[in-house]
Amino acid sequence: MTEITNYITNDFKAIDSQDSMAAVQVFFDELTFSHFPVIEEEIYIGSIASNDIETFDGTKKVLDYKYSLEGFFARSNMIWLDVLEVFAKNNTNLVPVLDEKNKYVGYYEISDIMKFFNETPFLFEQGKIIVVKKRELDYSISQIAQIVESNDGKLLGLFVSATDGEYLEVTLKISIGPVNEIIQAFRRYDYEIISEHFEDNYINTLKERSDYLDKYLNI
Predict the structure, then answer these.
(1) Residues of the chain with pLDDT under 50
(2) How many angstroms separate the CA atoms of 174 and 182, rounded?
(3) 120 contact partners, CB below 8 Å, separation of at least 6
(4) At CA 121, angle to CA 173 and CA 129, rounded to 5?
(5) How far apart are CA 123 and CA 156, in angstroms?
(6) What is the pTM assigned to this prediction?
(7) So what's the pLDDT on residue 198?
(8) E strand or H helix that includes residue 173
């Protein structure tokens, strides 16, 4: 699998703090970046947001608006999931990358990170997606893995896809295994099944009984 650092790019040079704001406004007009890194004497000092520059005076320098820069960044040794978190927390489509000595080395674009994500086994490998719900206090990764594997399933990965402070929804992907048996095992351990499955005999049985009851009541 490709290393995430292969997606670090320098297609466009970082904005210099001495650049005019007019030049930066033209730069953003021609591109679709939500943010772009700013450097001062080769040192990263923050990212300027495209939404902010509309109100800035074009005759001034970027340095005059240093107070508005956002300081988020990723490290070149970060794993892809941590990089994705930086994107999400800062509502951006571009993240500057610094090395362990704080030297600016380039940036990641969200489209490239999603491309990398698509190459992970979690998405690339064929399998079934199951979404389960459980009280947060009772949530256990080891228990979820044990339920899947003890029913002849193979777990490709999982993540917490929703939470309200009391309950968690967990999305998991299995590559092999009897889906119906795994679903019923989750129910025995008091997990609610959020996703719908053709193989789910429990739901099918309830529907058949409901249809029978409706028919009986209409006699």
Answers:
(1) none
(2) 10
(3) 1, 80, 157
(4) 15
(5) 9
(6) 0.67
(7) 62
(8) strand 167-176
